[in-house]
Amino acid sequence: MIFFFNSMRTIDEQGYHFDEWLTPKEIAKDVQQVAKQISADYADKEPLFVVVLNGAFVFAADLLRALENVRCEVTFIRVSSYWGMSSTGQLEFIVPLQQVVDNRDVVIVEDIVDTGLTIHQLKAHLRGLGATSVRVASMLFKPNKLEYEDAKPDYVGHEITDEFVIGYGLDFDGFVRNLDAIYKVKE
Q1: How wide is the angle at C-alpha 96 spanned by C-alphas 72 and 149, nearest 5°?
Q2: What is the mean pLDDT of residues 41-53?
Q3: Does 6 sit behind a cis peptide bond, omega within 30 degrees of 0 on the bond before it?
Q4: What are the catalytic residues?
Q5: Residue 7 DSSP label
Q6: Distance, CA of 186 to CA of 49 (rounded, Å)
Q7: Please, are residues 139 and 111 in contact by the beta-carbon 8 Å criterion?
Q8: pTM as predicted
Q9: Sign of CA dihedral 173, 93, 148, 109
Q10: Which of 138, 143, 181, 184 has the fewest CB atoms within 10 Å around its CB?
C-alpha cells in the first residue's frame, strides 16, 4: 500500500513503514554517472558483466543501456545471503555462473554492498576461474558496514548509512522489487 504525505511517498510493507529516499530522477542521475565511469574505463575492452540476481536486474538493465561505446557480454548468477532484513552470513549459489571468464575483464553488477561478504566471495570465485580483472558496480554502498576491504565497489551510484532499503530491485522477502524509487525504513 502506498501513502502520500507532503508529496513524499510512503510505503507500508509487512508491518514496516518506508519513506521515499531516492526518486526515479535521482536514481537515473546516479546510473548515468556510473555508466559514464564504466564507459571511460572499458572503451577499448570487451568486459563481461556478471549481474547478481535477483536484486541487481533493474540497475543492470538501466546501466547497460546507458553505456556508451562499450561492446560487452552479459550473464547472470543468483546468490543469496539474506532473509528478511538480516544477513545469514552464508553465501548460497542458487544459479551458478554459466559463462567462461578465463582471461576476461569482469564487472560484477550488484544492487547493494554492505558487509561485502557476497562480493568478497564472488571476486575470489571469479579470480579462481581465471578472470583477468574483477571490478564491482553497485547501485548502493554502505561504507560503514564494509567488513571486506577487497569488496569495496569500484563504481557506486549512491552511498547510504545503515538503513534497510527497498525498491528499484531491492526486496523485502522477495516483494517490492518493482518500485521505481528507493525507500528507507522509517524509524
Answers
A1: 75
A2: 95
A3: no
A4: 114
A5: T
A6: 34
A7: yes
A8: 0.90
A9: negative
A10: 143
Strand order in the sheet with 155-159: 86-95, 73-83, 48-53, 105-113, 133-141, 155-159
**Would you tell me how many other CB atoms lie within 10 Å of the CB of residue 144?**
10
**Dist CA 178 CA 35 (whole Å):** 22
**Other CB atoms within 10 A of residue 24 CB:** 14
Planar angle of CA 116, 151, 87, nearest 5 degrees: 5
- Cell numbers representing residue 76 in the block: 547472470
Give me the domains of the chain, ranges plus CATH numbers. 18-176 (3.40.50.2020)
* Cell digits of residue 2: 502506498
Looking only at the bridges linking them, the beta strands covering 133-141 and 105-113 are parallel
Residues 128-137 pLDDT 10s: 999 999 999 9
In the chain, where does DSSP find H-type helix? 24-41, 57-66, 117-128
Give the pLDDT of residue 185: 93
Q: Which three cell numbers stand for residue 100?
A: 567462461
Percentage of the chain modeled with pLDDT above 70: 90
Which residues is 87 bridged to in the sheet? 82
